[in-house]
What does this fold into?
Amino acid sequence: MKQALFLFSFFFLPACVLSQVYDVDALKFARQQTAGTARSMGAAGAFGSVGADLSSTLSNPAGIALYRSSEISLGIGIHPTSTNSKFLNLERGENNTRFTFNYAGFVYAGAINKKKKSISFSSKDLAYVNFAITYNRISNFNRTLLYSGLNQTSTYAGSWANELNGLGGTIPGFGNASVAAVLGLQNETVRFDSIANSYRTYIDTPIFQNGRIRESGSVDEVNINLGFNINDKVFFAFDAGIPFLSYSAVNEFSEVNTNDSSARFINYRYVQEYRTNGIGFNLKLGLIYRPVAWYRTGIAFHSPTWYRLDENYYAYLDEKYDGLQYKREVDAAPFRYNINTPMKGIFSNSFYFKQYGFLSVDYEFQNFGAIKHRFRDYKEAADAINQTTKGKYGFGHNVRVGVEGAIKWFRVRGGYAWQSSPFKTSVAVKGSDEQRHSFSLGIGYRGKSFFADVAFLQMRTNSYYQQYVSNDGNEPSVKTKNIYNNIMLTLGWRLGSKKQ
It folds into this structure.
């Protein structure tokens, strides 16, 4: 994850530099987490063919067509996260907790009066036409990564000198070099040696390095759904989704002197602040078939999500040297661009044990290499990013398995979900390839007109990060173990007498 290392330069930089930023963020925006009601979350989201749950708008929208009475519900959650990093053989950890309102929904179940024939369809067996609107938080970006250690082999400032020396004598600027390198040159952290005819830095190893990345934000989606029930056998629906994206990151990195040969240098701190906000649109189609009472199968298609995003970027380099403090900064003008996240396919099967519960399995796939960027007036830059994305990411697979047991009014649930690495095999870092493993448990109460569900879901994923790249391959890396916990409560009211 290289967060906004060169973002200011989208106005001037060649596309090969831009491509190191945007593909990472687009992947973050495209990978959806388990979301919806506490009932579906308790079964790890394996509700593709189960239906009659308002979380259906996120997977197979045909599930809305299984409702036989109107319903309203809402959900709140607690989200503790834990991040443990290893950098230069030193381990550090950080914990965060957020409280959120992350779900609300309403469905109107409209029974068709065949005698009045008020709606004309080709099938005379149309039983219900249902309408639903839902709100869901489908991604949570809140995380803090801390890392530090004594580097004996390389410095970040040294990578700036290497970068500037690679320009072949061209005068450095934001049009051909990274923000960090240009600010380092302006601040004289990197200087041109006219005798050696090269750029050099007085910062040398060993050096103590500190890093902190604070991420926050979410993707919240509003869905509008229209579902049709044909003779309680075939259920299909159309769904329009409107996601609202908000993401911010503050990336801080510092190097502190531990070497007497550069005693006049004390430390420097390089800080980048990055914010992205926007809105998108997608379409979903779904079908569920129930040939017998104990079995259902479903299929769903999700179109790409078309996003329009606005981003802002600010960075500064603050250095203490020889008892004085030097600072250089850059504040980029807002930049608007578009991305398309990949389409998605979902196949589902569920098996029912009379009134005692069910077992459900979902399989989902999408091609992350198909993520597309569009920059107005910067087509070459967008093309280069898209080419990088295609070479770096591949097909992602998601398997979800969930069970629910029922004894009168009481429900108990459990589930497991696995998301494959989005990276191609040649790119992925073994053990830190961002596979996701989720485990869930849940309980619930089902009354005639009121219901309540509680769920706990834990997602584990390991990631890999480098702050910089050096010519000799001695740059350090951060390997991180991330744990995202989600505790959710859903309360709902059935506006009719029929149970689903």
Summary: Residues 379-392 form the longest helix (14 residues). The domain at 7-495 is CATH 2.40.160.60 (Porin). Confidence is low (pLDDT under 50) at residues 1-20, 115-122.
